[in-house]
Amino acid sequence: MWIPIIILTAIGIISGVLIWVTNRVLPPEPESLKKAEEISGELPGMNCGACGYPGCFAYGQALAKDKNVFFSNTCATLLQDQKMLTSLEKTLNLKIDRNAMNKKAVVACNGNSETIGTYLGVGSCKSANKILKGFKTCPYGCLGLGDCIKVCPQNAITIDIDKNVAVIDPQKCNGCGLCVKECPRKIIKLVPANAKIVFLCSYESIKDIPGREKCDFGCIRCRKCVKACESGAITWNKEKSIPEIDYSKCISCDKCIEVCPTKVLRKYPDFYLKPKEKSKMSQGRDICHGDV
Amino acid sequence: MNNLLTIFLGLVLINNFILAKFLGLCPFFGVSKKLSNAVSMGAAVTLVMLIASIATGIIYNYILVPYNVQFMNIIIYILVIAALVQIVEIVIKRTNIMLYNALGIYLPLITTNCAVLGITLINAQNNYSLLQSIVSALGGGLGFTLMLVIMSAIREKNELADTPKSMKGLPIAFIIASLLSLAFMGFNGLL
Amino acid sequence: MNMEELEERFSAKKFWKELAKGIILTNPVFVLVLGLCPTLAVTTSVNNALGMGAGVIFVLLGSNFIISIIRKITPGMVRIPVFIVVIASFVTILSLVFEAYLPPLYESLGIYLPLIVVNCIILGRAEVFASKNPIIYSIADGLGAGLGFTIALIIISFLREVLGTGSLVIFGKQLFSIPVISTSPLSIFIMPPGAFIIIALLMALFRLIGVLKNE
């Protein structure tokens, strides 16, 4: 009867001693790893990958090596949480300018672009974009198949069925930029969180492809906004043929919004012309089938 | 020699841990979303399986059998595996950070992985010698890694496919596993 | 002592709530997708499923009971090892009992019986519930999770056995047999691929019900 008890106890003790011995014999943890562990304790631990590193721990290691990584690869989730941000600031001995870093993503497309045919392929923007550069007349229009919805860790993106365009809720968005990387047409832009206006068109090329011109709802290059702007925040980019907005100069007079004939310049964050009912918004890409 | 080959091939192809024995399914469906993760996880599981098999092989053959207390194998194996995983984690962390980055996050998952305890129990059940235990651990680990890699490659493609809403994610992964299992049944006549 | 009494005063309503939660709302197999290995491996016949379910319920009750008792004297650092040792002891008891009194069942469950130790359901319930709650509710929780698991096993094994052999045999007694299937059984369903197909379809069904309910 005693043998099982003795064996079990002995093996338990041997295991414990072995762990203790390995712990003592091996060189102590490298200093960088210890610091990385300390830092990753301060990180959100969501492992979303938005910062560009494979997980919060890898990000912590990068931060331990060079704290300026925070500026090039910012953790957006952290930026939203003042408490966590302050504690990280203390650990890293870093000064973070909160307002300048805070960003929001906006889908720069007004929607309603005409389709050039019926698309019945795989329901993802990436696939659709590979066939004849997408099924929309405008090669820069939102395809509305919702690749961005899938990557958004905040569930901030919905598809507006009326206009067939993805819409990002400014309240929920934390500016992580995952959707920016995901969009195959590169039409999701990051704007400062305190921006007062947004420009909802991405048509950049001045060399029009016949049959693939910009749609009636996009910027028509009338340059009224540049003339109307009192503070000089809006300048005309000749190369891309679009207005460029310097958000720091904008005084939020809304003059440009009034003069814009196609309403591509909108007030932010409430950039909807009329607030949509919730039932009309859908959380999935399944609604896009059949009638795209 | 022939015997060892039979054990090895049997565990890689015919009695595959995932498809035929259903061991280690939780990490299988959890980690098989990306190919790069699958390789790391497979390597970590194989490593722990190998070490656990050696340790439990020694304990089984030289302690449990002589004292006739084989019935205690469950409780002793789980203790030994947990301690070993802890030691492996410490060793990797202190000696090779690159390796720790690749395998580290999977190690805690492995402690309570049925594939690792499963291989040691299979060894005990079949009364394998130490060498046979090592070979069977290698076979089991390789079979697990093989399935993880195949599955993750298919699932990466499957992400782009148009799946009905209620089948999306896990259910369709199970269907894929079922088809793979059907395909691997073709190896049944091999040995 | 007073606090202890107050805390452990029995409330029938809460008891049933904890019990029902494990069976339906957080069904370990279909909703939480835990404990997959035994779910797929031992569901070749309803008989095996019943044996496995009973075993898991026994271990869950025992481990939840003990862990709930020692929850206040267990230091946080060695919590998980202690839980595992407690669970492993109960599994050892279970396998000795099965070996002595139900040898055929012990044979057919094979290594999946000792593998109850690493079943995520048991460690999960110990960690999430029993280590924080009084004994009586821990038992209710263990019973609920165990019953939910058993019910899932019975559903899967029923489908597999009936489709795969055309008849239903429980404790050596044939309950019924379906003429067409029993003459040419769809034996794929008692083989591994069938297990994957059945659980995939059941899971999809559960989700479909959830989606339809929400709409």
Characterization of this structure:
The complex is a heterotrimer of chains A (292), B (191) and C (215). By secondary structure, chain A is an alpha+beta fold. In chain A, 33% of the residues lie in helices and 12% in strands. Chain A has a three-stranded antiparallel beta sheet with strand order 3-2-9, with no helix packed on it. In chain A, strands 1-4 form a two-stranded antiparallel sheet. Chain B is an all-alpha fold and 191 residues long. Chain B folds into two domains: 47-150, no CATH class; 161-191. Chain B has nine helices and no strands. Chain B has helices at 2-14, 25-31, 35-67, 73-95, 97-103, 107-111, 114-125, 130-158, 170-184. The two termini of chain B are 14 Å apart. Chain C is mainly alpha-helical. Chain C has a domain at 14-157. Chain C is built from ten helices and two strands. In chain C, β1 (167-170) and β2 form a beta hairpin. In chain C, α4 (46-69) crosses α5. Chain C is globular and about 60 Å long.
In short:
The complex is a heterotrimer of chains A (292), B (191) and C (215). Helices cover 33% and strands 12% of the residues of chain A.
Topology:
The complex is a heterotrimer of chains A (292), B (191) and C (215).
Chain A: H1 2-25, H2 31-42, H3 56-65, H4 69-72, H5 76-80, H6 82-92, H7 98-101, E1 103-107, H8 125-130, H9 147-151, E2 157-160, E3 165-168, H10 178-182, E4 188-192, E5 197-199, H11 224-228, E6 234-237, E7 242-245, H12 255-259, E8 265-267, E9 281-282
Antiparallel strand pairs in A: 1-4, 2-3, 2-9, 5-8, 6-7
Helix pairs in contact in A: 2-3
Chain B: H1 2-14, H2 25-31, H3 35-67, H4 73-95, H5 97-103, H6 107-111, H7 114-125, H8 130-158, H9 170-184
Helix pairs in contact in B: 1-8, 3-4, 3-7, 3-8, 4-7, 7-8
Chain C: H1 2-8, H2 12-25, H3 36-41, H4 46-69, H5 79-101, H6 103-109, H7 120-130, H8 135-165, E1 167-170, E2 173-177, H9 179-183, H10 192-214
Antiparallel strand pairs in C: 1-2
Helix pairs in contact in C: 2-8, 4-5, 4-7, 4-8, 5-6, 5-7, 7-8
